[in-house]
Amino acid sequence: MTGPITESPILSIRGLSKNFGGVRAVDDVSFDVMPGSIVGLIGPNGAGKTTTFNLISGRFSPSAGTLQMQGRSLLGLRPDQIAALGIARTFQGTRIFPNLSVAENVQIAALAGAKLGFWEDWLGLRAAREAQVQAQQRAQEILAWVGLSEFGAESAGSMAYAHQSLLGIALALAMRPKLMLLDEPFAGMNPGETARAAQMVRRIRGEGITVVLVEHDVPAVMRICDRIVVLDQGAKIAEGTPEEIRSNERVIEAYLGVDADADA
Ligand SMILES: Nc1ncnc2c1ncn2[C@@H]1O[C@H](COP(=O)(O)OP(=O)(O)OP(=O)(O)O)[C@@H](O)[C@H]1O
Ligand SMILES: [Mg+2]
């Protein structure tokens, strides 16, 4: 699954810190994400997982440390510039246009993804219309891919929460990313929905997209991730294979031991 030892990371994080006033939300965190892997980022509430995503995606700038995507520094880049480099994220609790249809939501994301490319500047009106048609086609493809075709015409906000979460993944896919940051995609899903969504995360990797997965459903994380990074109170307390993490005493003490759902 992970490539040969000579391969270089798609994402490289070194000494990353973020302070909010007196709170050290992320505290000197370092890890690499190898291309084509699924990396789990787990830890208790408030551990700094979402903040780490906000730093990678450029929503916040770090208090200290470095972030590199394929060897290129992300420091000082705006969120749209980071997205243009191929990093897409989903949001904890989803972020959709609830009153637009499911298909329209994905079309907007597909258009935004197209605009991030080279043609933005020289598109005339006719080409803009073609881009619209292409975005519609692409939206249909992506909705089929995530299993939401039958909901295309419904308003996004009226769907069940599990389906809204899949829509969040569809929006990120529409950006044609190289790296996807998924923030609690299985939250609110029943076991069957979680199993299907986990299978989808594997299919995303099968498309050549690297995945970093924040999730409290630890058994699901253990099943699908190649490597796991564990945060607690902002700091990295462990990193390794699912087997290594499962038996790590610090992790059990900080997180797994108190997670009643861990064996569910
Ligand atoms: N914008 C912000 N301003 C101030 N403090 C923040 C901000 N965002 C996060 N924090 C704080 O940083 C810490 C880490 O929060 P974060 O949201 O990254 O945790 P998390 O690991 O994603 O938790 P959860 O599992 O509950 O989603 C918490 O103490 C939180 O209150
Ligand atoms: Mg969070």
In summary, what is this structure?
The chain is of the alpha/beta class and 264 residues long. The protein has helices spanning 49-56, 79-84, 102-115, 125-146, 161-173, 191-206, 218-224, 242-246, 249-254, and strands spanning 11-20, 23-33, 38-42, 64-69, 72-73, 87-89, 179-183, 210-214, 227-232, 235-240.
Describe the 3D structure.
The protein has 264 residues and is an alpha/beta fold. The protein folds into two domains: 1-86 and 179-194 and 208-264, P-loop containing nucleotide triphosphate hydrolases (Rossmann fold); 95-176, no CATH class. 37% of the residues lie in helices and 22% in strands. It contains nine helices and ten strands. It has a six-stranded mixed beta sheet with strand order 6-7-8-3-9-10, with helices on both faces. A four-stranded antiparallel beta sheet has the order 2-1-4-5, covered by helices on one side. The longest helix is centred in the middle third of the chain and has 22 residues, at 125-146. The chain starts with 10 loop residues before the first strand and ends in a 10-residue tail after the last helix. Bound molecules: adenosine-5'-triphosphate and magnesium ion (MG). The site of magnesium ion has 3 residues, from helix 1.
